[in-house]
Amino acid sequence: MIEKLAHPLGALSRPLGSLAQSVRTLARPLEGLTDMLFPQVCVVCRKTLDALEQQLCSACLTDFAPFPNPLAGGQAVIRSVNFHFGLGAIPSAAWSLYPYQSNGALHDALHAMKYQGLFPLGCLFGRRLGELVQSAGGPGELAAIVPVPLHPLKRIERSYNQSEAIASGMAEVLDLPVVEDAIERSAYTGSQTGLGITERRKNMAGGFRPAARNSRQISGRVLLVDDVLTTGATMVAAASALREAGADEVAFAVVAVTEEKV
Ligand SMILES: [Zn+2]
User: Fold this and answer.
1) Hey, which end of the chain has fewer CB within 10 Å, N or C?
2) Span from the CA of 167 to the centroid of ligand 1 (angstroms)
């Protein structure tokens, strides 16, 4: 019976195959039509993008006001970590593209990347961050890029982790592997507000742990990646879990950093 059925189905597959071919042939001009009907717009100001722009228009990119030189962002990261957690928590190297702004174009873009599931926007920031690392003298000998993991419940809620998108853009430029399962969140942590350095460290110590199962053994110098560094609590805790997982050194890369005026 099955054999008998197979025959007419086999005959059917030919017209279906040629239909698929026709759809493919039509797809190219349709792409142009789709662009005309649903033009690519800037995620921040909704202006129609020109052929060379991706996700963001050049006016919004200019509004982001990057650090004045390739080293300044990393220095701001180190100042912030030192201010909140002391010298012992400072990463082996650090890079950042922008001083964080609590409103305006950069804030809107970072918010869209985090909450609208815009993977290509995360990759775009990641590629820019990768280029910054290169222009700041290169990353040195790095073994892997590790995105800061989201708590599994948050990941389900948001459907994607923006740090993974940033890490994947950086990996493209720096030609390094991304290891997404080196560490994991161990618990929700309470607010850090009003705590001293020691209490903050203790509070965050339980925030991450080496993953029970990981796809790749972590060793050597690792680049830890996140979207925004505010006090550094998340990065410092994740770095400590990474060292526990086998990393000898941890460097930090973030898209934006809240500057400490110290
Ligand atoms: Zn724009």
Assistant:
1) N
2) 23
CATH of the domain at 143: 3.40.50.2020
Residue 214 Cα to ligand 1 middle (Å): 39
pTM over 0.85: no
CA atoms within 13 A on the CB side of 170: 35
Q: Which domain holds residue 88?
A: 64-257
Give the number of other Cβ atoms within 10 Å of residue 130's Cβ: 26
Residue pLDDT tens, the chain, 262 long: 333 433 444 444 444 445 545 554 555 556 566 666 667 899 999 999 998 999 999 999 889 999 999 999 999 999 999 999 999 999 999 999 999 988 899 999 999 998 887 889 999 999 999 999 999 887 888 999 999 998 877 777 777 899 999 999 999 999 999 999 999 988 655 555 666 666 665 555 458 999 887 777 889 999 999 999 999 999 999 999 999 999 999 999 999 999 877 5
Asked, for residue 246, whether it belongs to a domain, the answer is: yes
Q: Helix 105-115 to helix 162-174 angle, to the nearest 10 degrees?
A: 100
Q: Is residue 52 part of a domain?
A: no
Cα(124)–Cα(180) distance, integer angstroms: 19
Ion ligand 1, residues whose Cβ is below 5 A away:
42, 44-45, 57, 60
- The Å distance, Cα 4 to ligand 1 centre, comes to 60
